[in-house]
Known about the structure:
Helix content: 25-40%
Oligomer: single chain
Amino acid sequence: xxxxxxxxxxxxxxxxxxxxxxxxxxxxxxxxxxxxxxxxxxxxxxxxxxxxxxxxxxxxxxxxxxxxxxxxxxxxxxxxxxxxxxxxxxxxxxxxxxxxxxxxxxxxxxxxxxxxxxxxxxxxxxxxxxxxxxxxxxxxxxxxxxxxxxxxxxxxxxxxxxxxxxxxxxxxxxxxxxxxxxxxxxxxxxxxxxxxxxxxxxxxxxxxxxxxxxxxxxxxxxxxxxxxxxxxxxxxxxxxxxxxxxxxxxxxxxxxxxxxxxxxxxxxxxxxxxxxxxxxxxxxxxxxxxxxxxxx
Length: 296
């Protein structure tokens, strides 16, 4: 998070403009990890200020370029609620299932894709409005287990096909249909969670719910990475250093996970078919005698 200690009185910066700032970055405990030069200001281009989801898209694109096998992208409402983030995933050809807010507007299933075929005055509706029109008998009770505790949970879910509304005014046709997943517990007066997904049309309700709750596993992995492996202990000042630190943490966590699952029936039941690329005869690990010193 951040706090503005002293606001400027100039014009609001434009998307492609520049800003002059004096800043200091600290951890929650007050430890400083970065700051502008003492007594001086720093000029920064707005295009160089990278928000979280833009950085995520950049990393995904780099992973695809390095032939990393893509899976289904899962994200909370902080990322999934951004229409530009979802559009970026689609441009990269990535399948996603992300949390969104109830006020996201969509065209219901059956709405003609071409503007000329739509009825006069036809307007998009919110996800909440779509959910409220779904017959209560359509909702199914689904159960899942917590990966750490093994506790069982259950809730009611329903899914529908919709077309998201995003800059439709500048397009001839609407966006392709995708899944809308709703979680509406029996004792709640209204739905508590919404997702949008580009998973295949034949994914089915069970497949959508399983993938949506898979994020619990992702969050557990993150907590173990942060608390047990040391992902949060990076104290550098640049992205390259953080990437190096994060890569080593994930490699260590992956090794420990394989050790944890290897000799157990879980690995066999999961069909873990692990293969490794043969090491080159000329391979030398980083920092070995005779290797070039990496550039800073």
